[in-house]
Amino acid sequence: MASWRIDSCVRGFHVYQDIWTPVLHEELDCERERGNIEDLYAVAVKKNGHVVGHIPRKISAICSTFIRRGGCIICTVTGSRRYSRDLVQGGLEIPCITTFITDSEIEVNKSNEDYIDADTVQTEVDDSGNENTVWIEYDAIRLVLDDRSTILSGGYLNDKHIYFGQNLLRRRFPEINGLKSRLEITKPSYKFEMSDSLIIQVIHCKDNHWITASNVGCQESKITVYDSLYKAIDQRTYEMLSRLFSIKTFTIKQPQKQTNGYDCGLFALAFATTLAYEKK
């Protein structure tokens, strides 16, 4: 039997502090958390079968693969709670020693980006005989490995990528209206009810461009358009916005500008995410 240790921490203590009081030197089990949409490789830290935190995301892919290949991981508490200073969103964590234990040699690539969890991957064969390996699936939307390559390489985000991102936002913020697919909002009869309290929508325009429209932070019956490239909207975009929101005047904002010709989708989703978190 072989083992090795690293200094680490149990993340998310602020979420679980009501059910767990850490004790110095106590040992906690680790288990892969299948179905976690925030982290495909999430590893839960458990006490008596109950989740009390998670392995840090920066090493979760390594840990998940290690467990899947037969290894065991134990977290031993080494100190009291502290702030997670390297996370933008903050939070609390418990310092620990993470011990990896195995009966055999397990090769683990230390780059998180190289991992696809074999247990969650499915394959499909289309009519032409080409194999499309599913990378991730959520709410009947499938992204394949080609989509993964596009996203990781910073390529142009298409309809499927944008809708997938909006679906994740809709799950996280069910009180927000909008976040519909491009197919749905391009129907001539479709429009939003301005009486709805909060609306955020990523919109395709100018043949190959993405913008975000929202009433978050606006006065009643007002809409702001967030555009990372242009300072004005064309006639077709204006007509679409007028139909969707039943108003004739829009405010155009450019909080941050893209530096190339293909990052508009990324910026549009970033604008939508920021608005969702900053809603009032």
Tell me about this structure:
This protein is an alpha+beta fold. Helices cover 23% and strands 29% of the residues. The protein has helices at residues 13-16, 60-68, 145-152, 159-172, 182-185, 235-245, 264-278; strands at 2-11, 27-32, 43-47, 50-54, 72-77, 82-83, 92-102, 123-125, 131-138, 141-144, 177-178, 199-205, 209-214, 224-226, 251-253. Strands 1, 2, 3, 4, 5, 6 and 7 form a 7-stranded antiparallel sheet that branches. The chain has a 5-stranded mixed sheet with strand order 11-12-13-14-15, sandwiched between helices. A 3-stranded antiparallel sheet has the order 8-9-10. Helix 4 (159-172) runs parallel beside helix 7. Mean pLDDT is 85; it is low at 108-131.
Which features does this protein show?
3 domains, Adenoviral Proteinase, Chain, 280 residues, 29% strand, single chain, Alpha-Beta Plaits, alpha+beta
Map the helices and strands.
Blueprint: E1 2-11, H1 13-16, E2 27-32, E3 43-47, E4 50-54, H2 60-68, E5 72-77, E6 82-83, E7 92-102, E8 123-125, E9 131-138, E10 141-144, H3 145-152, H4 159-172, E11 177-178, H5 182-185, E12 199-205, E13 209-214, E14 224-226, H6 235-245, E15 251-253, H7 264-278
Helix pairs in contact: 4-7
Protein name: Ubiquitin-like protease family profile domain-containing protein
Organism: Amphimedon queenslandica (Sponge)
Domain Ubiquitin-like protease family profile: 106-275
